[in-house]
Here is the input.
Amino acid sequence: MEEVATPRRGAPRKTDASARERILATANELFYREGVHTTGVDTVVERSGVSKTSLYRVFRSKDELIAAFATERDRSFWSWWDRTAKRHADDPRAALEALLSGLAKLIGRPDYRGCPFLNLATEFPDPDHPGRLVARANKEEMRTRLADIVAQLGVADPERVASQMAMLMNGAMVTGIVAVPADLKDELVDAAMKLLT
Amino acid sequence: MEEVATPRRGAPRKTDASARERILATANELFYREGVHTTGVDTVVERSGVSKTSLYRVFRSKDELIAAFATERDRSFWSWWDRTAKRHADDPRAALEALLSGLAKLIGRPDYRGCPFLNLATEFPDPDHPGRLVARANKEEMRTRLADIVAQLGVADPERVASQMAMLMNGAMVTGIVAVPADLKDELVDAAMKLLT
DNA sequence: CTGAAAAGTTACCGATCTGTACCGCACGTT
DNA sequence: AACGTGCGGTACAGATCGGTAACTTTTCAG
Here is the structure.
């Protein structure tokens, strides 16, 4: 994903990706890696090999592109979540552990740059920013799903534990930007299990 | 802190705050509330009632001002921490609870905008940015202090628990940007106590 | 073969960004 | 009264920001 795509005039060939797809793919990488404010529209244009006019034909503003970026990240996040959880459909505890282990693995990757949704909430002070709406929805959904899993485990107060679990996971994600503990996976799973008692 | 300070020519009266102090006070508020990237140098200049020339006489660049902002936040954070912990010098468990309660209280405030250090880590992709160095040091120091407290409580693996506790606290701070649970304080203290077992 | 759809080219706009040069003014000290 | 220090005023430079207008080129479907 380092190379600069080469522009091509005219409508896209059937085999080619549309301008929208190329823009979104580039924004998905750059907005995450370099930050949203740091990444200018011109950079997205240059790196995606799409003309600026095309970008503004597809997205009415940078904010709209940011919202699309957030939505795309949201989509792929739940896709990952579902794939992971479904491998343990019959065992909620194993599903939870798999989610936590998977999260730890993501955080440990060298290109890890934090949780895109928390990053959006940090980068934009306005709580009504289109990107932040997606971010908030994502976090609420995560809490809800955790409550489902936790309820299946028969803990006393699933809502509270889910809230605590969400805090822990968000904490792991954000702490991972600053410094990743050597045995993050074990620490994270262990902490989560203690929250279940 | 909403009013715009009025500029005054010449050297400051003995009673007046220096240009440096006024700049830092303004940056301390604006960088936190509106974000660092969103806040331009011109805005800091205007709001502090200091001339732009003065700002660049005191700070060589915006990055240096950001570093000073971070250092100031770090200073006041540990001041708060020490004041809180010292009220329970003889009781580490009570000290920990007080810190967590205090944190929850901070997070619940309407002007809360997240942890300034985590925000810096998010806003600046470069891990060697002067502001991020302060941020990283702050988080390492927090983990160390938590390890001290936790060790006094006689838990089995204080280093691990401290790391988990730091994750939890960072998680509370960052989750607080998105949505603050109604009974955050109880949830936080309860979660921390469960981590101690 | 034709035409609509989807894209690229060029050139630009006004605003805002960090940062600088030069000069004038007021206070505290001696 | 004189002077150094700290500061404000004005003006501007150069880059980058998000965003737009008018026009050309390519592909695909009919």
About this structure: Residues 7-12, 18-19, 50-54, 57 of chain B lie near DNA strand D (CB under 10 Å from a C1'). Chain B has a mean pLDDT of 94. Chain B touches chain A at residues 33-35, 37-38, 113-114, 117-119, 121-125, 135-136, 139-140, 160, 163-164, 166-175, 177-179, 181, 183, 187-188, 190-191, 194-195, 197 (CB under 8 Å). The two ends of chain B are 44 Å apart (CA to CA).
